[in-house]
Automatic annotation (TrEMBL):
One of its GO terms (cellular component) is TRAPPII protein complex. Residues 15-327 form the TRAPPC10/Trs130 N-terminal domain. It comes from Oncorhynchus mykiss. This is Trafficking protein particle complex subunit 10. It holds the Pfam family TRAPPC10_1st. Residues 1042-1051 have a biased composition (Acidic residues). Keywords: Golgi apparatus, Transport. Its main location: Golgi.
Length: 1216
């Protein structure tokens, strides 16, 4: 029979299981307990939870105990671990009499107790065995009848609450099926009970939490309630949900503490404000620290005890979840938060007690992690544990200082008493760590026992932390621990050991630009150097600290006096002076030459004014301030010649960049922060702002390490840089100078006798035995001494200049300028206005020379790429009496106009049109437009048809001018005309008109032929119709006899070709074309015009109009026909052949004439001689167009009415 439940059950451990009570036949259940306990957790069940939480698969286990009425939950009891989730009644009764006599009554009492305590989760198990049937065969009922009777008596509406288990101890298929069904039903009922009871418990817990603002609410009571829920989740092996319950408790308590610090305190927090009397640290080797839990339950736990217990439970669950590195992260946050919470709650503790608690907790967490991870995992995850090592080191150091263990004299009596009190607060060592030689308790107790033990433990922890930080690349943290070690060695009286740690830390701080840590470390370094007797290093560090703005004025004065005291110690002039960098002492701010130029003539008085910014807090008297000057003798300066414009200009004022002595060098400067605002808005209402903040976008640049070494000229060096003055250099000296804090002005007289370039290289300030040297003056400071004759500089200007007061004599090609008297080394500036006359078409000799002997090149004109203006380049030369060389000048002028002409004809009358286009971006006034004959040899009369004498020509606009050409005698063959006008800018107030000329030539202006055309409809019709043939009759009339020029063209009066030919004629070719007409037959042909005046020839062509309406006449073009010429007697007389063929074509009717193209191809190649002779290409006839105005078409622009045809047509229209 199963053992009854013990009086003190083991609860709150991982062995806890859901309680299931068993009533009825205990012997029967005992026989089935082993297989039931083994098979129940084998199959997982899906647990569907409320509030939309994701379902989970869980394995159910149970703690089967004998049913007792004491196990049933009392009213108000919220303990879930002692809550029976399911009640089972076991029976194997199959006899009716026995059932009626005892079993039914027992079942009724059992069910009555459950109903009395509100327990509705129960099940009746009827076990059927074959042995029981054999023993009592007479009085038994069928199994189904007994089960039905039990269901009728107890399970009226819940038939599934009665389960039959057949032969459970036999290994048969029926038994296995019965077991499977029973186990499934048991898991289902148990899971249903879990869901219902946990849901009811969570609702009660939520209700209790919502009452937290009411008087009398206790966090400790609520803590125990929610921890019950965490225990249940842990019992079900749902560690994530269990951890969530503790995290919620942690967050709730933290918020109350923060509110207390803000002035909104809760009454129940008073119990946590009581003085702390025990600081035993974290205890992570127990799953549950029952002592601290009992204290929380009674409301007597301190803040450290509550935090310790809460973290212990979180650590246990994180270890089960295999997240040990999160334990270290949470532990570090816990320790820092506890320190702050103790301050917020104003909890009183013995001095050093909190350090003991932190030290013990750090080591306890580290030992717990080492116990669940192997060595490889620990080495790979050093970054998670090194923070605890460093924190423990810091707290042990603090305890050592407090207990007098870090001093040369040892601890005093007061410090010994404090040590005893601290050890008393640790209490007795816990049983879990008694047998551990490296327990945190033993380490702390041993470290506080003696100076030697403390030093051994502290150095062990410190070096371990440094090695870990270095291994993971966290050099800043490693340097910080090293700096702490340096402080330890300094207090131990060992500055030699401390120096290396301070140098490493200072180097990192300087390279990364941490201003305040640099200052603090330099103070420690100065103390260390002073103890070691390193005078030069100490003076350099003192100079840095004296000019450091991060220190108070008293501290700066102290370090400055240290330098002045050393400078006044030795009066021996032969003693070796200590050279320090001037960057620590003063900064060169500005250098200015007097006069304000760095290029002076030989013998000129020149001074240099230095502006020095003293970094010292007090006035410092200087024995001497000197500047070294390097002289460079340049070739060519001593010969009296000049480099003229090639002389490099040197600035008269040089500015030097300033920087803070404690700041970092520019090469290692920290980049500026790039901040961006971030906003968290409500998902439901975007207008609601939940929170806002700032984020740094370039954190990777701001926080990265910078290991680059600074420049030797910068004041950020860890070790001194040797600085020396150059020997043999020229020195500029100024004695008895007192540098006041801030800006100081010092004036030097510099040498300017020798010609060459002088460079200021170094600056040295002497204070007794100390020299502050600036080894390199940067940027470069130079001045030049020269000797030269006057120089001429010419700069073309684009704007109009004012008149200069100069005496000017001008001739055709030479202009002489007399300059007024000018003082030495001064500049005389004057301006001249150069006027360029726009050339019409200048004709200059090829080898015209300028006054200085240069060959004049004809100015070239080209088009400006931006505004299409024509540009003209003009060259000038300027001669000076003091130089044998001339200064050439190239000037570019742009012509703002473009002009073009055209000849217009109206019969025999002629008109000349000139178009003037403004291609510039300026508006001009135009007046006095004239057109004249260039040579005035003919009796022409040009009558202007322009009505406006004064016009405004806007930008990109054109003006047209027309003249009527009349003549008294014969029209000349060639007309040479000149168009002239005056123009001025419209923006000028006083108009200064300038001339513009445009020359052009017109040739062959006489009208030689006139063409008239007439379109006639078909016979019997009055109008032309589209699609019907019409007749075109052309009449070509010669208006004048051919002149000599026309004869020279070879197209007129072909004399001597045929001796018998008496008729002189001119061959013309006509061509008819039109887009609205179709020519039937030939569209072109040859016409032979007699040489007599008024000779006429008519040609008829058939046309067909393509469209209806008023159609323009087709185009009629007339060309000169030039036959091939015979140049040698041996060439066959092809001209006569062509001429004969042409005459035959002309004599035929128009319809029978062959096509011109076909005619031109006839006889183009003629074979001479036999096949052995080479064939030669014969000259071809060609067509030459007439010049504009030589042929006048009277029908140009005429139209004819064409009616549509009368044919009916079918028009198909598709509508969509």
């Amino acid at each position: 029979m199963m053992e009854p439940q013990e009086e003190k059950p083991i609860i709150y451990t991982m062995e806890n299981k859901p309680i299931v009570t068993c009533a009825g036949d205990q012997a029967l259940f005992t026989s089935l307990y082993t297989p039931l306990a083994q098979q129940l957790p084998r199959e997982p069940m899906e647990w569907k939870r409320s509030y939309g939480r994701a379902p989970k698969m869980i394995h159910l286990e149970a703690n089967f105990v004998q049913f007792k009425e004491e196990l049933l939950p009392k009213e108000g009891n919220k303990a879930l671990l002692t809550f029976p989730f399911l009640h089972i009644y076991w029976t194997d009764c199959c006899d009716t009499e026995v059932y009626k006599a005892s079993v039914r009554d027992n079942m009724m009492r059992w069910q009555g107790n459950l109903r009395l305590h509100g327990s509705a989760d129960w099940v009746i198990v009827v076990v059927e065995t074959s042995d029981a049937k054999k023993k009592n065969k007479t009085n038994i009922l069928p199994r189904s009848s007994l089960v039905d009777k039990i269901r009728n008596d107890f399970c009226n509406k819940q038939n599934d609450r009665c389960v039959v288990l057949s032969d459970p101890l036999k290994n048969s298929s029926r038994s296995q099926e019965s077991w499977s069904a029973f186990l499934l039903k048991l898991r289902t009922l148990l899971l249903m009970s879990f869901t219902q009871n946990l849901g009811r418990f969570e609702e009660d817990m939520r209700t209790l939490r919502e009452k937290r603002n009411q008087p009398g609410w206790s966090f400790c009571d609520y803590f125990m309630v929610q921890e019950e829920l965490a225990f249940v989740f842990e019992m079900l092996q749902q560690f994530e949900d269990a951890l969530l319950q503790y995290d919620e408790l942690d967050a709730l308590f933290t918020q109350y503490v923060l509110n207390f610090g803000a002035g909104d305190g809760a009454n129940w927090l008073g119990s946590f404000c009581s003085p702390v009397k025990s600081w035993t640290g974290l205890l992570l080797r127990r799953p549950i620290d029952m002592e601290k839990r009992d204290g929380i339950q009674r409301g007597q736990a301190s803040l450290l005890e509550l935090r310790s217990y809460l973290f212990c439970r979180q650590c246990t669950l994180l270890i089960f979840l295999q997240r040990p590195w999160e334990v270290t992260q949470r532990a570090l946050e816990l320790l820092h938060n506890c320190v702050q919470e103790l301050c917020l709650l104003e909890v009183s503790m013995l001095e050093g007690a909190l350090d003991c608690w932190v030290f013990l907790s750090c080591l306890e967490v580290l030992h717990r992690i080492e116990g669940c991870c192997d060595q490889a995992q620990l080495e790979a995850n050093v970054s998670h544990t090194v923070g605890l090592w460093a924190y423990a080191t810091d707290k042990l150091k603090s305890l050592g200082y407090m207990c007098g263990l870090v001093s040369e004299r040892g601890p005093l009596s007061l410090e010994l008493n404090r040590t005893v009190d601290l050890l008393a607060g640790l209490g007795d060592e816990k049983a879990e760590t008694v047998h551990s030689l490296q327990s945190p308790y033993k380490k702390l107790k041993e470290a506080l026992s003696s100076v030697e033990a403390f030093e051994r433990h502290y150095l062990e922890l410190s070096h371990a932390a440094v090695e870990m930080y270095t291994a993971i690349g966290r050099m800043r943290s490693a340097r910080l621990v090293g700096k702490s070690l340096a402080e330890f060695y300094m207090r131990k009286g060992d500055p030699e050991q401390a120096e290396s740690f301070l140098q490493n830390a200072l180097g990192s701080y300087v390279s990364e630009g941490w201003s305040l840590p640099v200052t603090h470390t330099r103070k420690q370094m100065a103390e260390c150097q002073k103890l070691l007797g390193k005078t030069e290093n100490y003076l350099q560090t003192s100079a840095l600290l004296a000019g450091d703005a991060n220190l108070t004025n008293e501290e700066r004065i102290h370090f400055c006096q240290e330098i002045l005291t050393f400078a006044d110690q030795s009066t021996d002039s032969k003693a070796q002076k200590v050279a320090l960098s001037m960057s620590y002492f003063a900064q060169l701010k500005q250098l200015q030459f007097r006069p304000a130029t760095a290029t002076v003539h030989s013998g000129t008085a020149l001074q240099v004014e230095l502006c020095l910014r003293s970094l010292m807090p007090v006035a410092v008297p200087l024995e001497q301030l000197a500047a070294s000057v390097h002289f460079n003798l340049e070739q060519g300066e001593t010969n009296g010649k000049t480099r003229g414009p090639q002389r490099r200009p040197y600035p008269g004022t040089v500015l030097f960049p300033l920087g803070n002595s404690s700041a970092m060098p520019p090469s290692a400067a920290v980049p500026s922060l790039e901040l961006e605002e971030i906003q968290d808005r409500s998902p439901s209402d975007p207008r609601t702002l939940n929170s806002t903040g700032m984020v740094c976008k370039n954190t990777h640049l701001v926080m990265r390490r910078r290991d680059s070494s600074p420049s030797p000229d910068t004041p950020n060096l860890v070790s001194p840089v040797p600085v020396v003055m150059e020997d043999g250099a020229k020195m500029l000296m100024s004695g008895d100078v007192t540098l006041l804090p801030g800006n100081n002005s010092i004036v030097f007289s510099v040498p300017s006798q020798e010609l060459g370039t002088y460079t200021l290289r170094q600056l040295c300030a002497t204070v007794g035995q100390v020299q502050f040297v600036l080894p390199h003056i940067s940027p470069l400071v130079q001045y030049e001494v020269y000797s030269q004759e006057p120089q001429l500089t010419v700069e073309p200007l684009t704007e109009r200049v004012d008149e200069s007061v100069l005496f000017i004599q001008s001739s055709d090609k030479v202009t002489s300028i007399s300059l007024p008297p000018t003082p030495p080394y001064h500049t005389l500036e004057f301006q001249l206005e150069v006027l360029c006359v726009i050339p019409s078409d200048p004709v200059r000799p090829e080898n015209q020379r300028l006054t200085n002997g240069e060959i004049h090149h004809r100015p070239r004109s080209y088009s400006h790429p931006d505004n299409h203006m024509t540009a003209i380049n003009q060259r000038m030369s300027v001669d000076c009496p003091w130089s044998i060389y001339s200064t050439p000048i190239s000037l570019t002028f742009y012509i703002p106009f473009k002009a073009k002409h055209s000849l217009l004809s109206a019969g025999n009358r002629k008109y000349i049109q000139v178009c003037l286009q403004n291609v510039s971006d300026v508006n001009f006034h135009l007046m006095d437009q004239r057109l004249t004959e260039k040579h005035h040899e003919s009796s022409l009369e040009l009558q202007s048809l322009n009505t406006k004498a004064h016009q405004l020509v806007c930008s990109k606009q054109s003006v047209y001018c027309v003249w009527d050409v009349r003549w008294k005698e014969n029209m000349p063959v060639c007309l040479q005309c000149v168009f002239s006008a005056s123009f001025s800018s419209a923006s000028e107030e006083v108009s200064a008109f300038k001339p513009y000329h445009y020359e052009f030539q017109l040739e062959r202006v006489t009208t030689l032929y006139s063409v008239r055309a007439e379109i006639m409809p078909a016979a019997g019709q009055q109008n032309c119709h589209s699609g019907s043939l019409c007749g075109l009759e052309m009449s070509i009339t010669r208006l004048a006899e051919p002149d000599d020029d026309e004869e020279d063209d070879g197209g007129t009066e072909e004399k001597g070709q045929t001796e018998t030919e008496e008729v002189c004629s001119t061959k013309l070719m006509y061509e008819v074309a039109g887009s609205s007409w179709v020519v039937y037959g030939r569209s072109s042909g040859l016409v032979s015009m007699p040489a007599d005046a008024n000779a006429n020839h008519r040609v008829q062509v058939e046309l067909m109009p393509l469209f209806a309406g008023h159609l323009p006449f087709p185009d009629i073009k007339v060309f000169k026909y030039l036959p091939p010429s015979a140049n040698s007697a041996s060439q066959p007389d092809t001209d006569s052949c062509v001429e004969n063929g042409m005459l035959s074509l002309i004599d035929r009717p128009l319809d029978d004439q062959g096509d011109t193209a076909s005619f031109c191809s006839q006889g183009s190649v003629h074979s001479v001689g036999s096949g052995e002779q080479q064939s030669r290409v014969l000259p071809m006839p060609r067509l030459e167009p007439f010049s504009p105005g030589q042929v006048f078409n009277h029908s140009q622009g005429c139209q004819v009415l064409v009616l549509p045809s009368t044919d009916d047509c079918v028009l198909e229209i598709n509508a969509t």
